Amino acid sequence: MRISVVTPSFRNSDWLKLCVASVADQAGVEVEHIVQDAQSDDGTQEWLARDQRVQAFFEKDQGMYDAVNRGWRRAKGEILAYLNCDEQYLPGGLRAVEAFFRRRPQTDVVFADTVVVDKQGQFICCRKSLVPWKNTMWVYNPVISSSIFIHRRVLDQYGLFFDTRWRALGDKMWTVEMVRRGLNLRALRWFTSSFTDTGENLCLKPSSLREMELVMEMAPAWVRRGKFLLHQLHRLRMVCHGLYWQKPFTYSIYTPGKPDRRMNFSVARPTAIWWARH
Protein backbone atom coordinates (compact mmCIF):
# COMPACT_ATOMS: atom_id res chain seq x y z
CA MET A 1 0.00 0.00 0.00
CA ARG A 2 1.87 3.06 -1.25
CA ILE A 3 1.69 6.40 0.59
CA SER A 4 2.04 9.57 -1.46
CA VAL A 5 3.20 12.68 0.39
CA VAL A 6 3.04 16.12 -1.24
CA THR A 7 5.09 19.04 0.04
CA PRO A 8 4.32 22.57 -1.21
CA SER A 9 7.49 24.63 -1.29
CA PHE A 10 8.51 28.25 -1.80
CA ARG A 11 11.71 29.80 -0.45
CA ASN A 12 12.02 27.33 2.42
CA SER A 13 15.18 25.50 1.42
CA ASP A 14 16.64 24.85 4.89
CA TRP A 15 13.38 23.55 6.37
CA LEU A 16 12.62 21.53 3.22
CA LYS A 17 15.88 19.57 3.58
CA LEU A 18 14.76 18.37 7.02
CA CYS A 19 11.26 17.56 5.75
CA VAL A 20 12.61 15.49 2.84
CA ALA A 21 14.94 13.55 5.14
CA SER A 22 12.08 12.71 7.50
CA VAL A 23 10.02 11.21 4.68
CA ALA A 24 12.93 9.38 3.08
CA ASP A 25 13.88 7.39 6.19
CA GLN A 26 10.40 6.00 6.90
CA ALA A 27 11.00 2.25 7.28
CA GLY A 28 8.70 -0.63 6.37
CA VAL A 29 6.44 1.29 3.99
CA GLU A 30 6.46 2.33 0.33
CA VAL A 31 6.54 6.12 0.08
CA GLU A 32 6.31 8.49 -2.86
CA HIS A 33 7.38 12.07 -2.03
CA ILE A 34 6.33 14.81 -4.43
CA VAL A 35 7.63 18.35 -3.91
CA GLN A 36 5.72 21.11 -5.64
CA ASP A 37 8.09 24.08 -5.68
CA ALA A 38 6.83 27.46 -6.90
CA GLN A 39 10.16 28.21 -8.63
CA SER A 40 12.01 29.26 -5.48
CA ASP A 41 14.96 31.59 -5.93
CA ASP A 42 16.72 30.73 -2.65
CA GLY A 43 18.79 27.81 -3.95
CA THR A 44 16.05 25.19 -3.54
CA GLN A 45 15.87 24.34 -7.23
CA GLU A 46 19.60 23.68 -7.48
CA TRP A 47 19.73 20.88 -4.88
CA LEU A 48 16.15 19.61 -5.09
CA ALA A 49 16.38 18.79 -8.80
CA ARG A 50 19.27 16.42 -8.00
CA ASP A 51 17.72 14.78 -4.93
CA GLN A 52 16.77 11.23 -5.89
CA ARG A 53 14.54 10.83 -2.85
CA VAL A 54 11.82 13.05 -4.27
CA GLN A 55 9.90 13.82 -7.42
CA ALA A 56 10.36 17.55 -7.84
CA PHE A 57 8.17 19.82 -9.96
CA PHE A 58 9.01 23.47 -10.46
CA GLU A 59 6.05 25.55 -11.55
CA LYS A 60 4.19 28.64 -10.47
CA ASP A 61 1.03 28.00 -8.49
CA GLN A 62 -1.74 30.00 -6.88
CA GLY A 63 -0.72 29.27 -3.32
CA MET A 64 -0.07 26.35 -1.00
CA TYR A 65 -3.40 24.60 -1.51
CA ASP A 66 -3.15 24.79 -5.29
CA ALA A 67 0.33 23.24 -5.01
CA VAL A 68 -0.99 20.36 -2.91
CA ASN A 69 -3.85 19.74 -5.34
CA ARG A 70 -1.35 19.61 -8.22
CA GLY A 71 0.79 17.11 -6.35
CA TRP A 72 -2.16 14.89 -5.46
CA ARG A 73 -3.24 14.77 -9.09
CA ARG A 74 0.22 13.44 -9.92
CA ALA A 75 0.35 11.01 -6.98
CA LYS A 76 0.10 7.23 -7.44
CA GLY A 77 -0.45 6.17 -3.84
CA GLU A 78 -3.51 4.64 -2.22
CA ILE A 79 -2.99 6.80 0.89
CA LEU A 80 -2.38 10.53 0.45
CA ALA A 81 -1.03 13.24 2.75
CA TYR A 82 0.64 16.60 2.63
CA LEU A 83 3.56 17.82 4.72
CA ASN A 84 4.71 21.42 4.81
CA CYS A 85 8.40 22.32 4.70
CA ASP A 86 8.54 23.10 8.43
CA GLU A 87 6.95 19.76 9.37
CA GLN A 88 8.41 16.27 9.64
CA TYR A 89 7.29 12.68 10.01
CA LEU A 90 8.42 10.88 13.15
CA PRO A 91 10.05 7.41 12.96
CA GLY A 92 7.47 4.70 12.35
CA GLY A 93 4.71 7.23 11.72
CA LEU A 94 3.82 6.22 8.17
CA ARG A 95 4.05 2.52 8.99
CA ALA A 96 1.50 3.03 11.78
CA VAL A 97 -0.81 4.86 9.35
CA GLU A 98 -0.54 2.14 6.72
CA ALA A 99 -1.28 -0.56 9.31
CA PHE A 100 -4.35 1.37 10.46
CA PHE A 101 -5.75 1.59 6.92
CA ARG A 102 -5.08 -2.14 6.39
CA ARG A 103 -6.98 -3.03 9.58
CA ARG A 104 -9.86 -0.69 8.72
CA PRO A 105 -10.10 -0.56 4.91
CA GLN A 106 -13.40 1.36 4.97
CA THR A 107 -11.72 4.34 6.63
CA ASP A 108 -11.66 7.47 4.47
CA VAL A 109 -9.58 9.77 6.67
CA VAL A 110 -7.20 9.19 9.58
CA PHE A 111 -6.34 11.92 12.09
CA ALA A 112 -3.19 11.15 14.08
CA ASP A 113 -1.24 13.02 16.78
CA THR A 114 1.41 15.73 16.48
CA VAL A 115 4.35 16.99 18.52
CA VAL A 116 4.75 20.77 18.37
CA VAL A 117 8.37 21.98 18.63
CA ASP A 118 10.26 25.27 18.43
CA LYS A 119 12.85 26.22 15.80
CA GLN A 120 15.57 24.29 17.64
CA GLY A 121 13.41 21.17 17.91
CA GLN A 122 12.63 21.60 21.60
CA PHE A 123 9.25 20.40 22.85
CA ILE A 124 6.37 22.87 23.11
CA CYS A 125 3.28 20.67 23.44
CA CYS A 126 1.38 17.58 22.29
CA ARG A 127 -1.58 18.01 19.96
CA LYS A 128 -3.75 14.91 20.00
CA SER A 129 -6.43 14.65 17.34
CA LEU A 130 -10.14 14.16 17.74
CA VAL A 131 -12.60 13.32 14.99
CA PRO A 132 -14.15 16.76 14.33
CA TRP A 133 -17.71 17.35 15.39
CA LYS A 134 -20.02 19.26 13.07
CA ASN A 135 -20.61 22.24 15.34
CA THR A 136 -17.57 22.45 17.64
CA MET A 137 -15.16 22.50 14.69
CA TRP A 138 -16.42 25.93 13.70
CA VAL A 139 -14.74 27.34 16.79
CA TYR A 140 -11.90 24.81 17.20
CA ASN A 141 -10.40 22.46 14.64
CA PRO A 142 -9.01 19.51 16.65
CA VAL A 143 -6.53 18.31 14.02
CA ILE A 144 -3.20 19.44 12.53
CA SER A 145 -2.72 18.93 8.80
CA SER A 146 0.69 17.22 9.11
CA SER A 147 -1.06 14.27 10.77
CA ILE A 148 -4.01 13.93 8.38
CA PHE A 149 -4.03 10.99 5.96
CA ILE A 150 -6.72 10.29 3.36
CA HIS A 151 -7.66 7.32 1.24
CA ARG A 152 -7.47 7.93 -2.49
CA ARG A 153 -11.25 7.60 -2.84
CA VAL A 154 -11.62 10.91 -0.98
CA LEU A 155 -10.35 12.50 -4.21
CA ASP A 156 -11.51 9.99 -6.82
CA GLN A 157 -15.05 9.46 -5.55
CA TYR A 158 -15.76 12.63 -3.58
CA GLY A 159 -13.56 15.08 -5.49
CA LEU A 160 -12.56 16.56 -2.16
CA PHE A 161 -9.57 18.67 -3.17
CA PHE A 162 -8.67 21.93 -1.44
CA ASP A 163 -10.69 25.04 -2.21
CA THR A 164 -7.95 27.36 -3.46
CA ARG A 165 -9.97 30.47 -2.69
CA TRP A 166 -8.69 30.09 0.87
CA ARG A 167 -5.11 31.24 1.43
CA ALA A 168 -4.53 30.16 5.03
CA LEU A 169 -7.51 28.14 6.30
CA GLY A 170 -8.09 25.80 3.36
CA ASP A 171 -7.34 22.78 5.55
CA LYS A 172 -9.96 23.82 8.10
CA MET A 173 -12.63 24.22 5.43
CA TRP A 174 -11.48 20.92 3.93
CA THR A 175 -12.20 19.11 7.20
CA VAL A 176 -15.53 20.95 7.52
CA GLU A 177 -16.44 19.48 4.14
CA MET A 178 -15.33 16.00 5.24
CA VAL A 179 -17.74 16.14 8.15
CA ARG A 180 -20.54 17.63 6.04
CA ARG A 181 -20.28 14.79 3.51
CA GLY A 182 -20.29 12.10 6.18
CA LEU A 183 -16.92 10.55 5.40
CA ASN A 184 -15.64 7.70 7.55
CA LEU A 185 -13.28 9.56 9.90
CA ARG A 186 -11.05 7.90 12.48
CA ALA A 187 -8.47 8.97 15.07
CA LEU A 188 -5.14 7.17 15.47
CA ARG A 189 -3.42 7.53 18.85
CA TRP A 190 0.12 7.75 17.52
CA PHE A 191 2.51 10.67 17.15
CA THR A 192 3.12 10.62 13.41
CA SER A 193 4.53 14.11 12.82
CA SER A 194 6.15 17.20 14.25
CA PHE A 195 5.01 20.76 13.59
CA THR A 196 7.58 23.54 14.00
CA ASP A 197 6.37 26.82 15.47
CA THR A 198 8.71 29.07 13.49
CA GLY A 199 6.80 32.24 14.21
CA GLU A 200 6.23 32.56 10.47
CA ASN A 201 3.71 29.75 10.00
CA LEU A 202 0.98 30.66 7.54
CA CYS A 203 -1.76 29.50 9.90
CA LEU A 204 -0.55 31.96 12.56
CA LYS A 205 -0.27 35.07 10.37
CA PRO A 206 -2.73 38.01 10.32
CA SER A 207 -4.18 36.75 7.02
CA SER A 208 -5.27 33.60 8.85
CA LEU A 209 -7.04 35.69 11.49
CA ARG A 210 -8.90 37.59 8.79
CA GLU A 211 -9.99 34.34 7.18
CA MET A 212 -11.10 33.02 10.58
CA GLU A 213 -13.49 35.97 10.79
CA LEU A 214 -14.90 34.97 7.40
CA VAL A 215 -15.26 31.37 8.54
CA MET A 216 -17.25 32.44 11.59
CA GLU A 217 -19.54 34.49 9.36
CA MET A 218 -20.34 31.25 7.52
CA ALA A 219 -21.21 29.39 10.73
CA PRO A 220 -24.83 29.16 11.97
CA ALA A 221 -25.92 32.15 14.06
CA TRP A 222 -26.36 30.02 17.19
CA VAL A 223 -22.73 28.82 16.82
CA ARG A 224 -21.50 32.41 16.78
CA ARG A 225 -23.54 33.18 19.87
CA GLY A 226 -22.45 30.03 21.67
CA LYS A 227 -18.69 30.11 20.96
CA PHE A 228 -17.77 29.95 24.64
CA LEU A 229 -20.00 26.93 25.33
CA LEU A 230 -18.70 25.13 22.24
CA HIS A 231 -15.12 25.70 23.40
CA GLN A 232 -16.05 24.17 26.75
CA LEU A 233 -17.66 21.21 24.99
CA HIS A 234 -14.43 20.65 23.06
CA ARG A 235 -12.44 20.73 26.29
CA LEU A 236 -14.85 18.25 27.85
CA ARG A 237 -14.32 15.91 24.90
CA MET A 238 -10.56 16.20 25.40
CA VAL A 239 -10.91 15.35 29.09
CA CYS A 240 -13.20 12.38 28.40
CA HIS A 241 -10.71 10.97 25.88
CA GLY A 242 -7.77 11.56 28.22
CA LEU A 243 -6.03 13.77 25.67
CA TYR A 244 -4.70 16.35 28.11
CA TRP A 245 -2.55 13.67 29.70
CA GLN A 246 0.63 12.18 28.27
CA LYS A 247 3.27 10.13 30.01
CA PRO A 248 6.96 11.03 29.47
CA PHE A 249 8.19 10.13 26.01
CA THR A 250 10.98 10.65 23.47
CA TYR A 251 10.70 11.92 19.92
CA SER A 252 13.30 12.07 17.16
CA ILE A 253 13.54 14.75 14.46
CA TYR A 254 16.01 16.46 12.16
CA THR A 255 17.22 19.83 13.41
CA PRO A 256 18.38 22.96 11.56
CA GLY A 257 21.73 22.53 9.85
CA LYS A 258 21.74 18.76 10.47
CA PRO A 259 19.72 17.05 7.71
CA ASP A 260 21.90 13.92 7.91
CA ARG A 261 20.76 12.51 11.26
CA ARG A 262 17.89 12.71 13.71
CA MET A 263 18.26 14.12 17.18
CA ASN A 264 16.45 12.59 20.15
CA PHE A 265 14.49 14.76 22.59
CA SER A 266 13.18 13.43 25.90
CA VAL A 267 10.10 15.04 27.42
CA ALA A 268 9.85 14.50 31.16
CA ARG A 269 6.74 16.63 31.73
CA PRO A 270 4.61 16.73 28.58
CA THR A 271 1.82 19.27 28.25
CA ALA A 272 -1.09 19.56 25.85
CA ILE A 273 -1.23 23.34 26.19
CA TRP A 274 0.44 25.51 23.55
CA TRP A 275 1.19 28.31 25.98
CA ALA A 276 2.54 30.79 23.42
CA ARG A 277 -0.71 30.50 21.44
CA HIS A 278 -3.10 29.95 24.33
Task: Provide key terms for this protein.
278 residues, Spore Coat Polysaccharide Biosynthesis Protein SpsA, Chain A, nine-stranded mixed beta sheet, 9 helices, 11 strands, 31% helix, 26% strand
Structure description:
The chain contains nine helices and eleven strands. The longest helix has 14 residues, at 227-240. Helices cover 31% and strands 26% of the residues. It has one domain: Spore Coat Polysaccharide Biosynthesis Protein SpsA, Chain A. The chain is of the alpha/beta class and 278 residues long. Strands 1, 2, 3, 4, 5, 6, 7, 8 and 9 form a nine-stranded mixed beta sheet that branches.
Largest sheet: 9 strands, mixed
Please trace the helix and strand order, writing H or E for each element: EHEHEHEEHEEEHHEHHHEE
Number of helices: 9
- Give the CATH architecture: Alpha-Beta Complex
Number of domains: 1
Give the distance, in angstroms, between the N- and C-terminal Cα atoms: 39 Å
Percentage of residues in DSSP E strands: 25-35%
Q: Based on helices, strands and strand pairing, what is the structural class? A: alpha/beta
**CA-atom Rg in angstroms:** 18 Å
Overall 3D form: globular
Topology summary:
Layout lengths: L2 E7 L3 H12 L6 E7 L6 H5 L6 E4 L5 H11 L4 E4 L4 E3 L3 H11 L5 E9 L5 E5 L20 E4 L1 H4 L13 H11 L4 E12 L9 H13 L2 H5 L1 H14 L8 E7 L2 E10 L11
Parallel strand pairs: 1-2, 1-4, 2-3, 6-9
Antiparallel strand pairs: 4-8, 5-9, 6-7, 6-8, 10-11
In a nutshell, what does this entry contain?
With 278 residues, the chain is of the alpha/beta class. It is built from nine helices and eleven strands.
